[in-house]
């Protein structure tokens, strides 16, 4: 099976989603931490509107891959193309500027702030009023705040967290924190949404909710989604294409069916006891 | 009774200034994880710049308008503090992201020496004066309430009011504006803040500017009271026990801590001083801070310290 086939014309995915052009193209990415090779010569691409899963055993390099896309880590080798243009070395806030949002494997919310305030930070880049307008509470700054607040309330409704709007996130149970994390990323109205194990540690019901949200985001906003997830059932259900990593190397790439039947993938998962 | 109230009020007024300077420490610590030993040097530089710029422009204006000269002085000193903030971010913080707290602490000691040196090179090292028209005469208040009323130093009163307004303004700015929210976000979690597009560099410049503004106001107040001289550096460090007491990460802690120490100092000086000999004001604050540390290592308002295992 030749995976380069996947790069040809846009198609409709098995999940019935319309797939667009390649939005992000990663070529020969290698990332080392001292002696540890987190990623070795990895190439794959992400198409507009698809749900692209990254799977693999613990320590395979999935989060590292996400951090490369997001600009947290800078690979020693490889090139990244965003909408056909080569991307220079960039910091996370610049990735955000390009329309890349993310959630974190270990929730990284602003614990002292309320749910609303946390999600409001996602609107940061869309706020145009300057320091003085804000400091002096001038009309434009107040109007801007209200407009963004409305958008945030929409997201709160969408994620069904109205009842905790004003609660400090530090006081929320884990499952809800994950939802707020998603809300903050969503508030950025991103083109690409990176989700690092959004369902880890959740019970079945919470997982179903989260799945529904992810699918709704994809359907309603057409957001491109990159999803790291350990639950194979979920991955096979909601993703269009899957990349499989093991020990920092890519061992499979294709539709869920193709990946499921890939011998290397089967070996990796059986070998590591998953 | 009137005397007690008088002492209390005096303490509260000094305390408000401590709160202001302590706020400078807390803001920087929260946003960049740096305990800024250079805060005292910043007060000195701000006061020096203010004194000299207004002196020079007063001379240039032919001594006609002290008000205009002071405005120019404040603008000039503000510009200097902005320059300091920019340079600290550009040449120090940016290179040292994610370093140990102890390293950063040493670095701020370095910054303090550089600022003190450069400040005195540019602006001179004599004693200068700041005259923003602070009234020096005391007034009697609350005559209806107490016999003889309460004697209040007008200058202290205005200074305290100014500090209170600034503290309140900053608190509102941090709580109610988008930039304030972004600053709180950075203080809470660098990585997450960056992921939503908040640039660390810009945030640090803003926070150090705010600390510069705090230093400027403190510099003007203290400078006009006791003259602009090197000892201003140590005055700012009197806010040190305040942050220990209030907790390094807490804005309310800085405010309440400042007031407690201000009042405690004055009361102890007046009521304990005669028994233990004078000079109690100097070390009393540290003793109070130490006692708090024994029972609450995180300070009165600080976040609980949890050691990860
Ligand atoms: N900042 C870092 N410094 C040093 N080593 C790192 C760093 N980040 C990741 N690594 C190493 O890189 C390798 C890949 O880690 P990564 O977190 O990407 O794995 P993962 O696939 O996300 O695993 P998990 O399923 O447990 O989340 C691991 O060996 C890890 O120890
Ligand atoms: Mg991971």
Please provide a written account of the structure.
The complex is a heterodimer of chains A (274) and B (309). Chain A has 274 residues and is α/β, with parallel strands linked by helices. Chain A has two domains: 183 residues, Rossmann fold (3-Layer(aba) Sandwich); 82 residues, no CATH class. Chain A is globular. Chain B has 309 residues and is mostly helical. Chain B has 13 helices and two strands, in the order H-H-H-H-E-E-H-H-H-H-H-H-H-H-H. In chain B, a hairpin with an 8-residue loop joins strand 1 and strand 2. Chain B is globular and about 60 Å long. The model of chain B has no long low-confidence stretch (mean pLDDT 85). The chains are: A alpha/beta (274), B mainly alpha (309). Bound molecules: adenosine-5'-triphosphate and magnesium ion. Adenosine-5'-triphosphate binds next to strand 2 and helix 1 of chain A.
Number of strands of chain A: 10
Supply the CATH superfamily name of the largest domain in chain A: P-loop containing nucleotide triphosphate hydrolases
What is the N-to-C succession of helices and strands of chain A? EEEHEEHEHHHHEHEHEEHH
Number of domains of chain A: 2
Query: Using DSSP, what is the number of strands of chain B?
Result: 2
Q: Can you tell me the CATH class of the largest domain in chain A?
A: Alpha Beta
Give the number of helices of chain B.
Answer: 13
Largest sheet of chain A: 6 strands, mixed
Features:
heterodimer; A: 274 residues; alpha/beta; Rossmann fold; 6-stranded mixed beta sheet; 4-stranded antiparallel beta sheet; 10 helices; B: 309 residues; mainly alpha; 2 strands; 72% helix; binds adenosine-5'-triphosphate; binds magnesium ion
């Amino acid at each position: 099976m030749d995976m380069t086939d996947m790069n040809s014309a846009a198609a409709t995915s098995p999940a019935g989603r319309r797939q667009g052009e390649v939005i992000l193209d990663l070529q020969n990415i290698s990332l080392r931490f001292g002696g540890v090779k987190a990623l070795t010569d990895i190439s794959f691409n992400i198409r507009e509107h698809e749900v692209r899963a990254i799977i693999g055993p613990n320590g395979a390099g999935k989060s590292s891959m996400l951090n490369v896309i997001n600009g947290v880590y800078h690979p020693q080798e490889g090139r990244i193309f965003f909408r056909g243009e080569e991307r220079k070395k960039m910091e996370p806030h610049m990735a955000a500027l390009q329309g890349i949002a993310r959630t974190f494997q270990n929730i990284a919310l602003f614990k002292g702030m309320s749910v609303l305030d946390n999600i409001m930070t996602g609107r940061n880049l869309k706020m145009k009023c300057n320091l003085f307008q804000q400091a002096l509470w001038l009309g434009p700054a107040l109007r801007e705040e209200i407009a963004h607040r409305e958008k945030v309330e929409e997201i709160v409704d969408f994620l069904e967290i109205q009842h905790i709007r004003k609660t400090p996130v530090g006081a929320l149970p884990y499952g809800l924190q994950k939802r707020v994390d998603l809300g903050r990323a969503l508030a950025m109205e991103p083109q690409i949404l990176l989700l690092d194990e959004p369902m880890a540690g959740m019970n079945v019901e919470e997982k179903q909710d989260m799945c529904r949200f992810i699918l709704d985001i994809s359907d309603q906003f057409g957001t491109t989604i990159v999803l790291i997830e350990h639950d194979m059932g979920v991955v096979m259900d909601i993703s269009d294409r899957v990349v499989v990593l093991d020990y920092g190397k890519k061992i499979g790439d294709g539709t869920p069916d193709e990946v499921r039947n890939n011998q290397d993938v089967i070996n990796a998962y059986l070998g590591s006891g998953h | 009774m009137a005397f007690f109230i008088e002492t209390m009020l005096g303490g509260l007024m000094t305390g408000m200034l401590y709160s202001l300077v302590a706020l400078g420490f807390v803001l920087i610590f929260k946003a960049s994880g740096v305990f800024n030993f250079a805060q005292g040097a910043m007060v000195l530089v701000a006061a020096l710049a203010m004194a000299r710029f207004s002196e020079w422009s007063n001379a240039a204006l032919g001594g006609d308008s002290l008000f205009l000269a002071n405005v120019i002085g404040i603008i000039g000193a503000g510009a200097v503090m902005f320059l300091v903030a920019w340079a600290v971010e550009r040449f120090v913080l940016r290179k040292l992201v994610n370093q140990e707290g102890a390293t950063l602490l040493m670095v701020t000691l370095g910054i303090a020496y550089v600022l003190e040196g450069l400040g005195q090179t540019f602006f001179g090292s004599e004693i200068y004066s700041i005259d923003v028209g602070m009234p020096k005469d005391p007034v009697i208040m609350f005559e209806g309430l107490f016999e003889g009323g309460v004697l209040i130093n007008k200058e202290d009163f205005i200074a305290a009011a100014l500090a209170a307004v600034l503290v309140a303004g900053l608190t509102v700015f941090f709580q109610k504006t988008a930039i304030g929210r972004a600053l709180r976000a950075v203080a809470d979690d660098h990585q997450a803040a960056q992921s939503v597009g908040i640039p660390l560099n810009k945030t640090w410049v803003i926070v150090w500017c705010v600390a510069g503004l705090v230093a400027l106001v403190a510099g003007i107040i203290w400078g006009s009271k006791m003259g602009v001289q090197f000892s201003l550096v140590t005055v700012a460090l009197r806010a040190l026990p305040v942050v220990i007491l209030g907790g390094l990460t807490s804005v309310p802690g800085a405010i309440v801590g400042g007031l407690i120490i201000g009042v405690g100092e004055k009361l102890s000086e007046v009521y304990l001083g005669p028994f233990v000999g004078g000079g109690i004001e100097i070390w009393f604050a540290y003793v109070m801070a130490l006692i708090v540390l024994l029972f609450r290592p995180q300070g009165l308002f600080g976040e609980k310290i949890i050691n990860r295992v």
